[in-house]
Amino acid sequence: MTGTERDATRSQLRGSSLLLAGQAFALVAALLAQVLIVRYLSKESYGAFAYALSIVMIGEAVAAFGMRRGVGRYMPIYEEAGDQARAAGTLLLAAGTVLSLGLAVVLVVIGLRGAVAGTFEGSASAVTVIAILIVLAPIQALGTLLDGVFAVFERPRAIVARKFVLTPLSRLAVVALLVAAEQDVVFLAAGYVATGAFGIALYGPMLVRALRAREVLSFTVPLLSNDVTNAMLGALGAVVLGVMAAPGEVADFRAVLPLVLTMGYVLSSFGLLLVPLASRMYVRGEGEQLDHLYWRTAVWTGVLAFPIFLACVVIPGSIVVGFFGERYADAAPVLAVLALGQFVNTAAGHNGVLLGVFRRVRFIVLTNVAAVLVGVVLMFVLVPRHDALGAAIATSATFVALNLVRQVGLARHTGVRGVTAPALRCYAAMAAAAGIAVALQLALSPPLGVGLLLVAAGSVVVLATARRELALAETFPELARIPILRGLIGAGGRR
Fold first, then answer.
1. Which of 94, 194, 93, 206 shows the shortest CA–CA distance to 139?
2. Is 183 exposed, middle or buried (0-12, 13-18, 19+ CB in 10 A)?
3. Is there a domain that residue 89 lies in?
4. Contact (CB, 8 A) for 41 and 49
5. Does residue 76 sit within a domain?
6. DSSP-based three-state secondary structure for 484
7. Which domain covers residue 319, as residue numbers?
8. How many CB atoms lie within 10 A of CB 444?
9. Domain contains 484
10. Over residues 293-318, mean pLDDT
11. Considering only CA atoms, which of 1, 3, 17, 56 is closest in space to residue 476?
12. Quick one: angle between helices 185-203 and 136-152, nearest 10?
């Protein structure tokens, strides 16, 4: 690997790590807000709020229309070619599309809010919450698009400031006011919308000129299925439970979902800067470097997500009760099952995105449509029998199957291997550490402290096994100056 290629990968990993640090800060603020909301609201009120947020997730995916992917792929290409006009036109097209579709989503949901409310239709506040929160769909879709724009220009600090610091703190302030002023769930919904709009205003207006768009649409329309599929698989469980089960089951499912989605935050942090770099490598014909970038990034996301996954499957009861109280103790197995599917999705890396970079759009669309259909069938089979646990099983099973198919697609349709030997060793270490820790927990039922030690030990073993593939010393030479970390990152950090 040349010096330029090494610098590009190093820059991508450093920027992604900054985004991950921002994600960690946002996670703390979000979890604190989650705990306050769940403890303050009644289970029925929280169920209605969570159900509305699930509707927002789907509406956001539709409004986004995959445009961030188009911006992330084509703006770097036009920038590389010096075609600033087409780059500007790409941005304007994407913003106009997101706003137009977002408005349509808002109007449809407000117009059908009574039907959308499902089992909550008897509650006037639930219908009102849905009508208010749906405004978040276009707001968050536009924010995601602008994040992609700043990623193209390699400005991760701007993303961190807006998305991971100011917006989470604003929402935490709304939750604090909710509790202090003894307000209701309608106040909470309105506050979430206001903070979302505040976050978008921080980026400021971007004046661009509209030019050619055909290439962007040919890329973003098929890749819309990636975003919709992820949103559907994440939110479908709460939606089906809202229609077919009691509000308390929605509350159990949605209360633990943000905990497992922390692994998804790791994935999104590394993906934001990966797409522009991978697109440039694709244009230059740097297939070997692209393969290296993909697998190194996949191992990074897997190793960073592993401690979260291990905690969720080894001590799920302690986590749920500790965060949300005894009322949610029955949600512990839901947390463990959801964590498995989300970890597989995170550790597999950005397989769907990379297939898009290689323009394998037919494969992407067919795979995603099949995944959604399988997920829906599993939901309607399992939810009536097992309620929230059934929804969790259906969600995780679909995520696992989808990623297996995508990996096969990478090996067959791109220059990226299905799996590399170094990555396979890392994944084997993760599987062994998780299996041993879970077996010890089930056999001995040790106290919380011992469970935490199992999580810590398993995480250290995985990190030590993967340190060569992670190239810690090469990516973060600063760590070598810390005596306690020098031995852990090892001389194998260079590759």
1. 194
2. middle
3. yes
4. yes
5. yes
6. helix
7. 3-419
8. 11
9. no
10. 92
11. 17
12. 30
Other beta carbons within 10 Å of 463 = 19
End-to-end CA distance of the chain: 9
pLDDT digit string, tens, across residues 103-118: 888 888 887 777 766 6
Q: Tell me the residue type at 174.
A: V
User: Which residue do the tokens 């903070």 mark?
Assistant: 195
The CA distances from residue 289 to 75, 272, 280, 416, in Å, are 21, 18, 11, 10
Interatomic CA distance for residues 441 and 179, integer angstroms: 37
245 contacts 388 by C-beta, under 8 angstroms = yes
Amino acid, single-letter form, for residue 488: L
128 touches 187 (CB < 8 A): no
Residue 381's identity, in one-letter code, is V
Place of tokens 């090996």: 411
**How far is Cα 455 from Cα 448, in angstroms, rounded to an integer?**
11
What domain count does the chain have?
1
> Helices marked H in 164-246 — which ranges?
167-180, 185-203, 214-244
69: DSSP letter: H
Give the tokens for residue 212: 């050619």
Burial grade of 458 (CB within 10 A; 0-12, 13-18, 19 or more): buried
Q: Answer whether 275's CB lies under 8 Å from 73's CB.
A: yes
> Residue 47 and residue 471: Cα distance in Å, rounded?
44
Please write the tens of the pLDDT for every residue from 202-254. Answer: 765 433 333 344 455 455 555 566 777 777 777 788 888 887 888 888 899 98
- C-alpha distances (whole Å) from 426 to each of 10, 218, 305, 354 are 20, 36, 13, 21
Question: Who's near 384: CB < 8 A, 6+ residues apart?
Answer: 244, 390
In-domain check, residue 311: yes
* Helices 287-314 & 332-347 angle (0-180, nearest 10): 170
- The closest of 27, 450, 444, 68 to 265, measured between CA atoms, is 27
Model confidence at 369: pLDDT above 70:
yes
Helix (H, G, I), strand (E, B) or coil at 480: helix
How buried is residue 273: exposed, middle or buried, by Cβ count under 10 Å (0-12/13-18/19+)?
buried
